[in-house]
Specification:
Length: about 240
């Protein structure tokens, strides 16, 4: 299975830091956010990783290189302007291929997420469907986290590993920006087209074709300089 890291966003709320540095290269505990992902992915056996970029993307390529020093092959999908998440996937389809793939946002920090456990989440559904024919199958499998203070309303409901939208349960959860997707999910998006992933996820959740589970480990979405400083402060690190 291949992996993709979203790294094309401008990071407007992170300015002025992102005026001179792409958001995925901002550091937590002295290491760029995106490098935490690369190391964690390789540790779990993901050695083919696609990275899309736009704003200051050359800096990401210069820092990570071809991936050989990590034991990986890094492939880059350059965008003239950020195409959003689903648009970025469609634009990198020639690099990702047609098999299910993992995608993760480059601006989250989840150093203990076990990526080795994600490879069969859709494969298991296919095996079950072959043995017991069903009318539909999961188009994707996503991970959810407890609603953070900046997003108290959450995104989805969850009932027995089926993600719902609009939420049918009292409790809601926030999308962790980690998921495994079937490429057919993006058939309606052309390379170079702007498209967000959220709309697609809500559509398939409404059809009952979105699976998911809750991740309870360390997870932070780094959106502002204050959030970055707060996370580093927890480890006794100050921004230069």
């Amino acid at each position: 299975m291949k992996a993709m890291i979203f790294a094309a966003g401008r990071g407007e709320r992170m300015r002025p830091l992102t005026d001179t540095c792409p958001k995925p290269l901002l550091k937590v505990r002295g290491r760029p956010l995106i490098e935490w992902h690369v190391l964690n992915l390789v540790r779990a056996g993901f050695t083919e990783i696609v990275i899309n970029h736009a704003h200051l993307g050359h800096m990401i390529e210069d820092y990570l290189g071809d991936g050989s020093r990590y034991g990986a092959t890094l492939l880059y999908s350059a965008e003239r302007e950020a195409l959003e998440t689903a648009g970025g996937i469609a634009n990198a389809r020639h690099l990702l291929g047609e098999e299910p793939f993992l995608a993760i946002s480059g601006d989250i920090w989840c150093p203990h997420f076990d990526f080795s456990e994600v490879k069969d989440v859709l494969h298991d559904k296919d095996l079950w469907g072959n043995a017991h024919p069903v009318e539909q199958r999961d188009i994707a499998w996503i991970w959810l986290v407890k609603n953070p203070p900046f997003h108290p309303q959450g995104d989805f409901g969850l009932n027995m590993y089926t993600v719902s939208y609009p939420p049918r349960e009292q409790a809601t959860w926030t999308f962790a920006n980690i998921g495994v997707y079937r490429m057919e999910m993006f058939d309606g998006i052309q390379p170079g087209q702007h498209a967000g992933l959220g709309k697609l996820l809500r559509e398939y959740a409404g059809k009952g074709q979105l699976g998911g589970e809750v991740y309870e480990g360390d997870w932070d979405n780094i959106g502002t300089p204050a959030q970055l400083d707060g996370l580093n402060a927890a480890f006794g690190v100050k921004r230069p």
